[in-house]
Amino acid sequence: IKRVTTNTILGMKQTGEKISMLTAYDFSTAKALDEAGIDILLVGDSAANVFAGYETTLPITLDNMIYHASAVARGTKRALVLVDLPFGEYQGTSEDAFKAAVRMMKESGAHALKLEGGVEILENIKKIIDAGIPVCGHLGLTPQSINKFGTFGVRAQEEAEAAKLKSDALALQEIGCFAVVLEKIPAKLAQEVSASVAIPTIGIGAGNGCDGQVLVVNDMLGFTKDFKPKFLRRYMDMYGDMVQAASQYAADVKAGTYPNEQEQY
Ligand code: KIV
Ligand code: NA
SUPFAM superfamilies of this UniProt entry (predicted)? Predict the structure, then answer.
């Protein structure tokens, strides 16, 4: 099996092959998604939400992310493993950002890192890329800035923010990012950005004009029960199936029908 690299991803944009990306936070899930042929597994800081139960992504630590990322990396043979740097690790000095990036690469087996933001963090991204670490940008709804935004609503609906997003995407390309995630922005804007840059855009809630798509795996499997944004397509009712399976197990134990003759030594 040939490993997907940042060059493979760039080649997909050039040939018009759409890029598939899903999040993963643990070994077993990563193994299944890798076998399914998902191109990029994103160890998202959304682990703070769907794994740990926090309301925002702010509390997750670099150590937490290294733990998740190393588990995912051990579960993949083909997928490119992309890992979020968590809030606070790359918004200060470029020296601190660089140190966090190097720790993640050394300790997790990640192949590339994702950082939220545009011009504000450009120098910090450059220092990381210059060290040979591939970086994916992330524009639009950047959840680490939720306290600035105030809501998880659609971004860049007004001209000023849309114009900044367009120039940020160009700046990220210029600095050497290999891709950029566009989260929750109008489809028309995402389409325009995708056409204006040579690097692939990966959308979530950003319409069909992006070069690839990403979803949080817990959401697309229906494991998160109450999260139902318009952009989400569910491919399973994992929550319902788990409740059913666990109820059946409990009933079998109570009834004394588990384990049976064949299930004991
Ligand atoms: O953390 C995450 O899951 C993400 C995706 C939604 C892009 O950043
Ligand atoms: Na994230």
Answer: Phosphoenolpyruvate/pyruvate domain
